[in-house]
């Protein structure tokens, strides 16, 4: 597929609907369309990659959809070529998030320390929120220091359900900021 277009498709699975996007032979988007920052993330990818966005499934997006279904039905790993666009700090945070194994969580402050941004917890949290590949770079595994669900692109209940699926005992607090 050409590198001047992000091809997208919607995919509904057990925990909701995601928009999957590919550029070339890589997945660049896996995001909840109802999330609070969906439009901003898509615009950032468009500007960063200097591309158009077209709704059309590709082999990459269909493979990603199949992986999502298999992961959430049979706990199969989801590994495929990913392409991200972000600052060096965002890239470092996303690499660190990708290393958190299923069934484990990490606090924002621990993530900041692990990535070398010890005093920049808020900036690290912003980088987590800018993640365009939510299920493939599993940012739902990053929690506030108090161990509650916290926020998740405006979908805290989805974050709670994803963590419970992975066997993480986490508290769901209805008072989270959306």
Short description:
With 178 residues, the chain is of the alpha/beta class. It folds into two domains: 5-74, Double Stranded RNA Binding Domain, CATH 3.30.160; 88-131 and 140-165, Arc Repressor Mutant, subunit A (Orthogonal Bundle).
Helix content: 25-40%
Number of domains: 2
What portion of the residues fall into strands of 2 or more residues? 15-25%
Q: What is the CATH first-level class name of the largest domain?
A: Alpha Beta
Walk across the major sheet and give the strand order. 3-2-1-4
Run of helices and strands: EEEHEHHEHHEH
Largest sheet: 4 strands, mixed
What average pLDDT do the residues reach? 89
By DSSP (H or I, 4+ residues per run), the number of helices equals 6
CATH architecture of the largest domain: 2-Layer Sandwich
What is this structure's SSE topology?
Layout: E1 5-13, E2 16-23, E3 26-31, H1 38-49, E4 52-55, H2 59-74, H3 88-98, E5 106-107, H4 108-114, H5 121-129, E6 142-143, H6 156-165
Helix pairs in contact: 4-5
Task: Tell me about this structure.
By secondary structure, this protein is α/β, with parallel strands linked by helices. It has two domains: 70 residues, Double Stranded RNA Binding Domain (2-Layer Sandwich); 70 residues, Winged helix-like DNA-binding domain superfamily/Winged helix DNA-binding domain (Arc Repressor Mutant, subunit A, Orthogonal Bundle). The strands form two sheets. The chain has a four-stranded mixed sheet with strand order 3-2-1-4. The longest helix has 16 residues.
């Amino acid at each position: 597929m050409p590198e001047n277009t992000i091809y997208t498709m919607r995919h509904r699975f057990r925990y909701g609907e995601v928009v999957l996007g590919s550029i070339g032979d890589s997945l660049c988007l896996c995001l909840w369309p109802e999330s609070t920052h969906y439009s901003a993330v898509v615009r950032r990818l468009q500007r960063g990659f200097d591309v158009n966005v077209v709704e059309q499934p590709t082999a990459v997006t269909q493979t990603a959809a199949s992986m999502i279904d298999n992961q959430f039905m049979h706990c199969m790993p989801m590994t495929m070529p990913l392409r991200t666009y972000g600052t060096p700090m965002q890239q470092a945070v996303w690499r660190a998030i990708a290393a958190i194994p299923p069934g484990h969580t990490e606090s924002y402050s621990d993530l900041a320390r692990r990535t070398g941004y010890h005093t920049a917890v808020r900036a690290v949290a912003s980088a987590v929120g800018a993640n365009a590949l939510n299920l493939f770079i599993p940012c739902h595994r990053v929690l506030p220091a108090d161990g509650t669900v916290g926020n998740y692109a405006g979908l805290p209940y989805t974050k709670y359900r994803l963590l419970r699926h992975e066997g993480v005992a986490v508290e769901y607090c209805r008072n989270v900021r959306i």
